[in-house]
Amino acid sequence: MAPILSIRDLRKSYDNGFEALKGVSLDIKAGEILALLGPNGAGKTTLISAVCGIARITGGSATVAGHDIERDWRAARTLIGLVPQEINLEPFEKVWNTVRFSRGLFGMPRNDAHIERVLRQLSLWDKKDSKVTELSGGMKRRVLIAKALSHEPRVLFLDEPSAGVDVELRRDMWRVVGELRQAGVTIILTTHYIEEAEAIADRVAVISKGRILLVEDKDSLMRRMGQKVLHVDLQQPLAAIPPGLDHFGLTLDEGGRRLTYSYDTKAERTGIATLLAALAEGGIAVADLDTEASSLEDIFVGLVHGDEREAAQ
Ligand SMILES: Nc1ncnc2c1ncn2[C@@H]1O[C@H](COP(=O)(O)OP(=O)(O)OP(=O)(O)O)[C@@H](O)[C@H]1O
Predict the structure, then answer these.
(1) Complex ipTM value
(2) Which structural domain range is residue 282 located in?
(3) What is the mean pLDDT of residues 281-303?
(4) What are the C-alpha distances in Å from 3 to residues 26, 82, 177?
(5) Which of 12, 112, 213, 220 is most solvent-facing, going by the fewest CB within 10 Å?
(6) Residues 199-256: pLDDT tens digits?
(7) Residue identifier of the C-alpha nearest atom 30 of ligand 1
(8) Domain-embedded: residue 309
(9) CB of 208 closer than 6 angstroms to any ligand 1 atom
(10) What Gene Ontology molecular-function terms does this entry list (predicted)?
(11) Atom of ligand 1 nearest to the CA of 85
(12) How much distance in Å is there from the Cα of 212 to the middle of ligand 1?
């Protein structure tokens, strides 16, 4: 199936000459949730702004459902909903009007039933006659989402949706994102909250210094790069790792009372049985065992630091 969003060698240099996107290529499948992860200043917002026509691109191209974002910008933009990072609402306008007008801006015919559906989905229906200034911060964020959905976009960009949002709203947002995906909407979200990507994304793209470092199915990424660690608590502390255990790459912590062993989750043999046998043979008595899986956050930090180290060399 052709991707709904296709980005090719996209470049963006700001007026001061700074190149924020250095040739980004990315294909986004219809109906998927892609999490775009990257440290501060990596180029996430620039990429979204470029695709949404807010920032003028300086090289490369992008198409939304086949519509070029430059040559055919109006058709491309109509297919996109954008929930920006910053709250930019008219304070004295009522919620209902704010969302309805937004639909009109895209030249879509009035459809009160759709606006009602969106407001209900976002638990804003009982606030429809409230002015924006009367809403809490979390409710304003919901209004931003409602506005972005007002013209029935096929692709929705969520730029840091959970910044400053409480746990309840975050869960609510995840539910809405799930419902939208069910309805066939493609979602691209940027987040610093990596647990969010772990919870809802189908694929993960990592961007650093204007370049995509990796795009991969989340589950396979976590399987491929995920490591598990085994903590072995010892009955008697060790002064150092015995030479016979050198090849296991162990670390010794907790005042010599804990050995930590990292192993590959995808490896055919984890080496745990061999390690335990070697400990028994060396007369090292084990008090307790416990394993811990690396999270998407560990993988992300490893990737970005690896990139920074390479750049420094
Ligand atoms: N208008 C501008 N003029 C010059 N440089 C800019 C401008 N806007 C952004 N930049 C620079 O481009 C780079 C990418 O910024 P961008 O906002 O896209 O990053 P980001 O990944 O969204 O970061 P964050 O996670 O902090 O939101 C940064 O180095 C930033 O300073």
Answers:
(1) 0.97
(2) 227-293
(3) 82
(4) 10, 19, 20
(5) 112
(6) 889 999 999 999 999 898 988 877 766 678 889 999 999 999 998 898 888 999 889 9
(7) 41
(8) no
(9) no
(10) ATP binding; ATP hydrolysis activity
(11) 27
(12) 15
